[in-house]
Fold this sequence. Notes:
Elements: H1 2-9, H2 33-36, H3 51-54, E1 65-81, E2 88-90, E3 94-108, E4 111-121, E5 124-129, E6 140-157, E7 162-183, E8 186-210, E9 216-223, E10 226-239, E11 244-258, E12 261-272, E13 275-284, E14 291-296, E15 299-304, E16 310-319, E17 325-334, E18 353-363, E19 368-383, E20 394-410
Antiparallel strand pairs: 1-2, 1-3, 1-20, 3-4, 4-6, 5-6, 6-7, 7-8, 8-9, 8-10, 9-12, 10-11, 11-14, 12-13, 13-16, 14-15, 16-17, 17-18, 18-19, 19-20
Amino acid sequence: MKKIFASALALGTFILCNHAWSAGYDLTFPVSARYAAIGGAAVSSTTATEAVVLNPAALSKARGLDLAAELAPVWVRYKGPVVRNDAAIDSKTAFTPFGAAFSSYKVTPDLGIGVGIYGGGGVGADYGQVDFGGYHAKPEIKSLLYSIETSVGAGYRINENFSVGAAWRISTIGGELSSATVLGGTLVNTKFDAMSGSNFGGFRVGGLYENDDRTWGLGMTLRNNVEWKAKGKASVTTSSASASHTADLGDVTLTTDLPIQVAVGGHHKGLVTDLGLFLQYEFTHYNKVQDQKLMVGTTPSDQKLSWKNGHTVRLGTEYTGIETWALRFGYIFSTPVVPRDRPSIFLNPTSPIHAFALGAGKTISERLSVDGCANVAFASSQSTPAPDSTSFRGDYAAISAAAQASLTYLF
């Protein structure tokens, strides 16, 4: 029985992997409706309002005191072989109403500060109760996660062209997981409940260059590596054809890393009349995430992940030829960080992610503006797991859709 429990524990280590639907733990689109609409290519063009999360150097451009409220409901559906090889099933469509609030304040002509609280990730894969065939129990198969982040930062203008900034990031995570497999003729259902944790060691630094007439600019940000740790309760249910038995496994701790990320980008406004062009590249050191560490009581058990480094390209356009209006389009390409022989029904597929966004903004007055964006991201793959993997061979897919809206007011 101890051997079954130990094997089952290794199946339940993906609670931290489902940080929204994305490559690795990072969001595909930013929480800002305005910048999601240009594919998130905002490192060189963000205003001060959302700068605390996009590039803190832009806080130097604060206009006074402004506030922004964001709403971003997200729908996500996964597909994968849960029970056996080549037998993929669809998850339920998960819905989460993400939200965010940002503010910036001009302290001096050259110094601005900002704060933001936002949904750093969430949603998840929920396949409902799954019939494994001939067993007393029909276990729930799901991995649900939320993440809330708070950032406080400052940006300083060195001269008319250069600015620098930094932000402190606080992350709070929580969630639950239920996974199952058949081991030695016994159906084993592992559950992690009431998972939660916080990290206070996150930072983002940024630099920004803008030419004299503000028609083009360059930006860069660097995010440090932080350790994510979530604690909760673990239990396991074993089922035969006629009966089930549940055992409490006590406290459980899951540990992984949100690795270093570097983003560089630029924009140009006016190269074509009334058209702005935006480009951004991100490198994320996901090769650092080779496993997830699991501790149940005093018993360690690591899950092999073998992730690869992530590369993301963001492209965007903005047309401002209609008075008080801005029309936007964005595209994102992300390489897979999950190896093809390490698929999971709870993670994005082992293939590139393609994402598209379409949005618009309206300046209502000198003080008030509104923005909206609709976006979709998708990926699919056919994977054959490694011999030591607990996943099945077959088709894996995921699709997400969001409708984002924001309102910004300058006091």
